[in-house]
């Protein structure tokens, strides 16, 4: 009975107390819409009050459209109560841990100047999507569907889609990597692969040696896990050997993280001889290497160079991470880790713990795409496309941008060091007003910060050109050049 908890007070008209009690009952969900109220006679008897008070309350509520009396049937609630709702607020920002805080702090998608429609953007190094061969991919998708059917929509295996694993194992062999006692784990691109390796094999405070400058996402992940990052200077051939030896002997590092084939951001390609020297040094100091095979497939200014992983024969000192993201379908988020099979067995459990497995539908479609030979045709095609753009960019930069040096042997970007420590962020601010965007270089350095004082990399920037039309490349580089001259005069 709705009135069992109503204590009638003497200092307030009784009809009002009944009216409020019914309204409260509706509000808190005790009285649902369409539910029947006790008759006025029952209420007066139950509460030992005059029936007229109850009738007045019911009439008042009826006039407000809250209840309705149907002659000979009864009185019913006409309206819905509010959902039960007890406001409860928590300060989540206050509770964010160091991991979340670091990733937020260094989230350049949020902190850097945003792209606006109509701008010429050299910021991205993504591939040009109009080059994707959609018909080939559509066929591969239908093949996957025909061979695997609904299985692709059920749970799969953490390690990955077996035919794709076997494909990548063969692919690694073609790159002269010895795959005996090694295995592959399929991941969501390089980024997850790196996260899995780092989170499984390092502890807070461990030191990682990497190139200076290096991939911003890798820096961010290492920082989030509380690692100590030691960046080693590069020259035009790759890591400087003397500096590397010093770093290896002074810092007792846990790992090296290297991008030998198109370092991001410099675009420097480490040649075979230098790769050997680097590998031998890491081996001498018993420090394993995480090799990022980034953009290997796009090498077009030199003959193919085997990965560092190919140098360790049947040894397991190199963990190779592969991803075709910057060439083909980054949206599929497919990458892989090739490593010692006992390690992969553990990383497989880590992957399962993180997200069960990568999408089998995507892996299968990707596998049929690679198997069909479409990938080889596509790579040939895009190499030419990007090589032409690269040549255009280099010619224009040489003509319009006063630089100390530029690096980059192709791929999808080049890197510019400005003369006289000119601040690339000031340059970016000016260019942004002219609707031109690029990536400031400081984000690729351990001290990555947008600060006003000079820090390493402040006088550098990256020009990504994969998705910029030739016309805009010319327009944009001229604008950058004009603004450098403005800043230099100031
Ligand atoms: C150095 C480097 N490695 C790998 C990748 C690819 O990452 P993902 O496969 O997660 O897209 C990138 C993308 O920018 C990169 O710069």
UniProtKB/TrEMBL annotation:
InterPro entries: Aminotransferase_I/II_large, HTH_trans_reg/aminotransferase, PyrdxlP-dep_Trfase, PyrdxlP-dep_Trfase_major, PyrdxlP-dep_Trfase_small, Tscrpt_reg_HTH_GntR, WH-like_DNA-bd_sf, WH_DNA-bd_sf
SMART domains linked: HTH_GNTR
Domain HTH gntR-type: 12-80
GO MF terms held by the record: DNA binding; DNA-binding transcription factor activity; pyridoxal phosphate binding; transaminase activity
Annotated keywords: Aminotransferase, DNA-binding, Pyridoxal phosphate, Transcription, Transcription regulation, Transferase
Alphabetical list of Pfam families matching this protein: Aminotran_1_2, GntR
Family: In the C-terminal section; belongs to the class-I pyridoxal-phosphate-dependent aminotransferase family.
PANTHER family: HTH-TYPE TRANSCRIPTIONAL REGULATORY PROTEIN GABR
Name recorded for this polypeptide: Transcriptional regulator, GntR family with aminotransferase domain containing protein
Organism: Clostridium saccharoperbutylacetonicum N1-4(HMT)
């Amino acid at each position: 009975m709705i009135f069992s908890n109503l204590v009638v007070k003497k200092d307030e008209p009784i009809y009002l107390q009944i009216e409020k009690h019914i309204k409260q009952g509706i509000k808190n969900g005790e009285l649902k819409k369409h539910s029947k109220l006790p008759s006025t006679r029952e209420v007066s008897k139950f509460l030992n009050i005059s029936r007229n008070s109850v009738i007045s309350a019911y009439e008042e509520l009826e006039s407000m459209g809250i209840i309705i009396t149907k002659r000979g049937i009864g009185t019913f609630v006409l309206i819905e109560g509010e959902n039960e709702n007890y406001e409860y607020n928590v300060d989540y920002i206050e509770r964010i841990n160091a991991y979340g805080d670091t990733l937020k702090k260094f989230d350049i998608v949020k902190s850097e100047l945003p792209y606006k429609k109509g701008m010429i953007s050299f910021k991205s190094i993504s591939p040009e999507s109009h080059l994707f061969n959609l018909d080939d991919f559509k066929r591969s998708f239908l093949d996957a569907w025909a061979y695997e059917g609904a299985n692709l929509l059920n749970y799969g295996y953490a390690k990955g889609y077996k035919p794709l694993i076997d494909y990548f194992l063969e692919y690694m062999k073609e790159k002269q990597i010895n795959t005996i006692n090694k295995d592959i784990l399929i991941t969501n691109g390089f980024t997850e692969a790196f996260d899995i390796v780092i989170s499984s094999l390092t502890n807070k405070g461990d030191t990682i040696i990497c190139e200076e400058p290096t991939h911003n996402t890798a820096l961010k992940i290492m920082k989030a896990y509380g690692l100590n990052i030691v960046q080693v200077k590069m020259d035009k051939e790759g890591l400087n050997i003397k500096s590397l030896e010093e770093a290896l002997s002074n810092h007792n590092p846990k790992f090296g993280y290297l991008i030998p084939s198109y370092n991001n951001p410099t675009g420097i390609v480490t040649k075979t001889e230098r790769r050997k020297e680097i590998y031998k040094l890491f081996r001498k100091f018993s420090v394993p290497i995480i090799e990022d095979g980034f953009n290997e497939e796009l090498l077009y200014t030199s003959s193919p160079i085997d990965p560092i992983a190919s140098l360790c024969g049947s040894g397991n000192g190199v963990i190779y991470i592969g991803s075709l993201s910057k060439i083909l379908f980054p949206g599929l988020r497919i990458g892989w880790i090739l490593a010692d099979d006992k390690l992969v067995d553990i990383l497989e459990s880590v992957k399962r713990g993180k997200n069960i497995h990568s999408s089998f539908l995507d892996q299968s479609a990707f596998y049929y795409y690679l198997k069909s030979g479409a990938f080889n045709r596509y790579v040939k095609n895009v190499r030419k496309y990007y090589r032409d753009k690269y040549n255009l960019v280099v010619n224009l930069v040489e003509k319009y941008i006063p630089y100390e040096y530029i690096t980059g042997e192709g791929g999808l970007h080049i890197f510019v060091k400005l003369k006289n420590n000119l601040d690339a962020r000031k340059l970016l601010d000016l260019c942004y007003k002219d609707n031109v965007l690029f990536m400031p270089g400081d984000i690729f350095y351990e001290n990555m910060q947008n600060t006003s004082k000079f820090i390493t990399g402040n006088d550098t920037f990256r020009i990504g050109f994969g998705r910029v039309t030739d016309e805009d490349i010319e327009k944009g580089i001229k604008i950058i050049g004009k603004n450098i001259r403005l800043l230099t005069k100031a």
